[in-house]
Amino acid sequence: MIAVLGLVIGVVVGLVVQPEVPDAVVPYLPIAVVAALDAVFGGLRAMLDGIFDDKVFVVSFLSNVVVAALIVFLGDQLGVGSQLSTGVVVVLGIRIFSNAAAIRRHVFRA
Amino acid sequence: MSRMPEKRTTREPDARYARPDASMSLLTSVMDNTLDDGYAEAARRRGEYGTSRMPSAGRGRLVLAAGLALAAVVITVAGVQSHKAAPTLAKERQELVDRINTAGSSADRLQRDIERLRSRVATAQQQALRSTGEDVRLQELGVLSGTLAASGPGVKLVVDDAADAGGTEGGTDPREAGGFGNSGRVRDHDLQLVVNSLWESGAEAVSVNGQRLTALSAIRAAGDAILVDNRPLVPPYTVLAIGDGKQLAAGFRDSVGGRYLKLLQDNYGIRANISAQGNVDVPAATGVTLRYASPDGAGTGGATP
User: Fold this and answer.
1) Lesser CB count within 10 Å: N end or C end of chain A?
2) Is the ipTM of this complex over 0.90?
3) Span B150-282: which CATH code?
4) pLDDT (tens digit, 9 = 90+) per residue, B22-37?
5) d(CA B265, CA B194)
6) Is A11 in Cβ contact with B65 (below 8 Å)?
7) How far apart are CA B229 and CA B216, in angstroms?
8) So where are chain B's domains?
9) Do B68 and A3 touch (CB under 8 A)?
10) What tens digit of pLDDT does each residue of B156-211 get?
11) Residues of B in contact with A98 (CB under 8 A)
């Protein structure tokens, strides 16, 4: 219940506040979105696996976002930013897909 | 996607059974390790592996809610951001398109101005010269020098690369593997020979792919492209020549260039087709400047482009 409340609060805050994203951060936003989705799916799967831990969830989410942004930032400095963001998206995308598949197996038993 | 993380973490490399996919360990771990190992570790530490479905304590729930809220904020902000950016991007694009259109239409207008002024100049010139009977000669010279567009019977010669010509890697021998690499490609030298043979066979005006040739035109190559007066051409090369159609075609077939072209056809698969036409139009040459003029005292002078 409180989890759903958190989700709703997050969406509402994002919509109401509409923070002005600094231009320097804009390129990392898509990466942050993918990292966030990865953390959410990972947490959901862990919950269904029965090994959920709230601290791990939050810390893994934050570290995912930071590391992904760092990799892309490094790539930007080296001139291969787009390739590295593709790499990050591919790796996180694979994780999202397999976690989503595990969740599906839990929920539908298929 | 094993659901037994502890098995994964205790897997030791066995010297006797080398994994066949050992060289792909990075890919394998990406595919297998989809769940953060921290979850399994934390659960084992608490000793409630497989049972902790939801945080029960108030603090844990709060942390979970905060994390979810953070994730939701990130995703929402990204969505809002791209939603906000979309009209701006579209607007910028539209502005660029508008600028291109404006510049294009103004260039068209200027081109029309040029054409109008040019025809006025031509008319004025003819009127001025009509009294002396020089206008006919001017017309003739204009056609021959390429400053006037011309139309009349002639031939149409289409030359194209061989059907299988493609690659452009090359060595040094011009025909076997020159700058044009594949021997099945038409080269600037071929086109020069063909055009010169057309002149030889009695062509009065020649154009290649819409580029009128004058006495000063150059057919050259740069990289892989054939240039006529520094403008790159795209195959197939359409050579239009004004002259007595049938005679010109027959003359060309017997000329050096005609025989050379036949050789290229037979040996290299270059495609060529010549046909007499009732009427061909060749445009006026662009960029012809008056470089030399002398008073027409002896009746032999005149202007050369």
Assistant:
1) C
2) no
3) 3.30.70.1880
4) 777 777 777 777 777 7
5) 13
6) no
7) 9
8) 150-282
9) yes
10) 888 888 777 654 443 334 444 444 556 778 888 888 888 888 888 888 888 888 88
11) 1, 31, 34
Q: What type of residue is B125?
A: Q
- By Cβ distance, the residue of B71, B72, B78 closest to A30 is B78
Give yes or no for B9 touching A (CB within 8 A).
no
Q: B269: Cβ–Cβ under 8 A, 6 or more apart, which residues?
A: B162, B163, B164, B165, B184
User: What is the arrangement of strands in the sheet containing B225-228, beginning at the earlier edge strand?
Assistant: B219-222, B225-228, B231-232
| CA–CA dist A2, B56 (Å, integer) | 11
Among B285, B305, B303, residue whose Cα is nearest residue B129: B303
Task: Kindly list the residues from chain A whose CB atom is less than 8 angstroms away from the CB atom of residue B79.
Answer: 14
- Considering only CB atoms, B78 lies closest to which of A10, A32, A47, namely A32
Kindly list the domain boundaries of chain A, sorted by start residue: 24-108
- Interchain pair B43, A54: CB under 8 A: no
Residue of A nearest to B59 (CA): A54
